[in-house]
Amino acid sequence: MTTGPLTKVFYTGQRGALFGLAFKTALLTVLTLGIYRFWAKTRIRRYVWSSVSIDGDRLEYTGTGLEKFLGFLVAVVILAIYLGIVQLLLFYFGLHFVAEPETGEEALMQAAVIYITLLAVLPLMLFATYRARRYILARTRLRGIRFGMDAAAWGYVWRAILHYLLTAVTLGILLPRQTYWLEKYKTDRSYYGDARFEQGGRWTGLYPAMIHLLIAVLILGAGIAVLALTEDPARAVPLAALGYGWGAFGWVFYAVRGRRYLDSHKMLDGRVGFDARPRVGRVIAIYLLGSLAVGLAGGAVFAVASGATAMAVGPMAGPGGTGPVGIVIVALLYLGAFSVFGALVLAFITQPLIAHFCETLSILDAGALADVRQRAYDKGGDAEGFADALDIGGAI
């Protein structure tokens, strides 16, 4: 890690402002039958990006909703053709989807079709993950200098599949290896202007972050042993509950401490370093308190929506049930309630998490950024189209 003066990163976004923006754009998304969501995501990103301050300079997001919308349309067509070919191949080998299996053979065939289709989509999901990150970097600027990423999505796809298989075969023991090398692949192909990022450290350095996951596995193993020895499920239940609970905590611990290790070992152009210190306890507190606030406020909103539905639709109900107008009113009220819920999640969970990770990050020798020069404009390919089509591009 490089040495030099520390420059803090600040986040200045306000909960009320983000909630208002998210709620307004969610309503527009509902009214346009989902089409506006590409523009909604763009507006929210612009707000969040502009709230991140580095040495007095703010990030800038330059992506557009039209880019995302057109990329989505192209991706949907390609995805439909791809899945159509997969289904034709399955049909050729005598496999097809059965709506209501009546025999064990049909149920087995249905399960095979579902799992084979999911596995066939996995490469596209990995492709979408890399391309979405590339697009976001290409549309992010600091001091007018663009970020960027190499066009190397398919290289990421086959590496990720091999790492997943290796992790599965070793029963999760090599999870740190998977995490480190996939992050290194993406980081080493990322740029700020003409300066390249590099992921340092070693994959074995992630094992301390995995300690609680290993403890959870031991507890669950003890539960299985108790069940095998006593043949009494009641005695194994406490250990199972403890193991799953510890596992949930262990996964958060691994995610936060792993991110801390990886970010603290990143370098830019061999001169600029990073010091990341996110806290596991703070992240858990944000999730718990945010979920409580969202649950209470969201429950109140749905209660109001239910009452309004009863008042608005009740008089319209006739012998044949609620008419078309009543159905539309119910749908709009509940979609509005879901819009409030989504805005609450952004304001009470997502934004505090972003703020915490920003404000616990420092940049070492940020003065060297003044020597970085502009990079060529990147058209951004499908502009997250596959990520949106596969429903893995919903996050900001």
Note the main attributes of this structure.
single chain; 396 residues; ten-stranded antiparallel β-barrel; 10 strands
- What's the overall average pLDDT, rounded? 85
Helicity range: 55-70%
Q: Which geometry do the CA atoms define?
A: globular
Continuous helix count = 11
Which sequence of strands runs across the widest sheet? 1-2-3-4-5-6-7-8-9-10
Q: Please compute the radius of gyration using only Cα atoms.
A: 25 Å
Write the layout of secondary structure elements.
Layout: E1 6-11, H1 15-31, H2 37-50, E2 52-54, E3 57-61, H3 65-92, H4 104-138, E4 140-142, E5 145-149, H5 153-169, H6 175-187, E6 190-192, E7 195-199, H7 211-230, H8 233-264, E8 266-268, E9 272-276, H9 280-313, H10 324-359, E10 361-364, H11 385-389
Helix pairs in contact: 1-2, 1-10, 2-3, 3-4, 4-5, 5-6, 7-8, 9-10
Question: Describe it for me?
Answer:
This protein is of the alpha+beta class and 396 residues long. The protein has helices at residues 15-31, 37-50, 65-92, 104-138, 153-169, 175-187, 211-230, 233-264, 280-313, 324-359, 385-389, and strands at residues 6-11, 52-54, 57-61, 140-142, 145-149, 190-192, 195-199, 266-268, 272-276, 361-364. β6 and β7 form a beta hairpin. The chain is globular, with a radius of gyration of 25 Å. The mean pLDDT is 85.
What's the short version?
The chain has eleven helices and ten strands. With 396 residues, it is an alpha+beta fold. Among the domains are: 1-61 and 275-373, no CATH class; 204-264.
